[in-house]
Amino acid sequence: MDIILQKETFQVRKIVILAPDGMLIATRVRDFAFCIYCSKLRCIFSQYMLKESDSDALQIAMETFAYTCGSPIVPEDHPLYDKVFVRMNLTCSSPIEQIYYSCKVEHSQICYYCGEDDDLIEPSQEILSKFQIVYPLCKVCQEGGKDYFTKGRIQMQKKKRVV
Ligand SMILES: [Zn+2]
Ligand SMILES: [Zn+2]
User: Fold this and answer.
1) Is the pLDDT of residue 22 over 50?
2) Which ligand approaches the C-alpha of residue 39 most closely?
3) Which of 45, 99, 106, 148 is in the most buried spot, having the most CB atoms within 10 Å?
4) H helix runs in the chain, sequence order
5) CA–CA distance, 6 with 25 (Å, rounded to integer)
6) What is the pLDDT of residues 7-21, one digit of tens each?
7) Cα-flanking dihedrals φ and ψ of residue 129, to 5°?
């Protein structure tokens, strides 16, 4: 019994997310950060809409401190450090965050796996009719063996009986 409990505690501790609870949600996405290594866009979250001065400071910070996946968006001594957040449990091989596609900030369609906006494949009616969400897929990723990432399989309705 003790051993099981210890194991659970250990697993919980392993998850490190440097953002307050409930921060990393679609309605709190304010902007996107661009990773200089993998060129993927990562969501930037904050509790409130950023003031223009904060927004400017953030833009400057992003230009100054080259952002890479899994690191904070601004350094610890930056005034925005406890105001703006990015998901920390990401690496450059992580796909685009699903929240990117559902957030209210204007965003373009980019490949779920690589973040590319060129050569996206038009999903077939068949796949669109089977899933609630079909994330974009580019030609390169498809040729590399990737398939559409989907969410919410739509239950096929049983054929109505003809009376
Ligand atoms: Zn990256
Ligand atoms: Zn791709």
Assistant:
1) yes
2) 1
3) 45
4) 2-14, 52-64, 98-102, 125-130, 139-143
5) 30
6) 544 444 444 447 888
7) -80, -15
Which strands sit side by side in the sheet containing 41-46, from one edge to the other? 29-34, 41-46, 84-85
DSSP bridge pairs for 31: 44
What are the boundaries of each domain within the chain?
22-107, 111-156
Ligand 1 centroid – CA 99 distance (Å): 17
pLDDT confidence tier of residue 57, bands split at 50, 70 and 90: very high
User: What letter represents residue 160's amino acid?
Assistant: K
Sign of CA dihedral 148, 153, 157, 158: positive
**Cα 38 to averaged position of ligand 2 atoms, centre (Å):** 12
Classify the phi-psi angles of 48: left when phi > 0, otherwise alpha if psi is within -120 to 50, otherwise beta. beta
**Cα distances (angstroms) measured from residue 117 to each of 53, 80, 106, 113, 157:** 30, 30, 14, 11, 34
Q: Which residues contact 61 (CB under 8 A, 6 or more apart)?
A: 73, 74, 78, 80
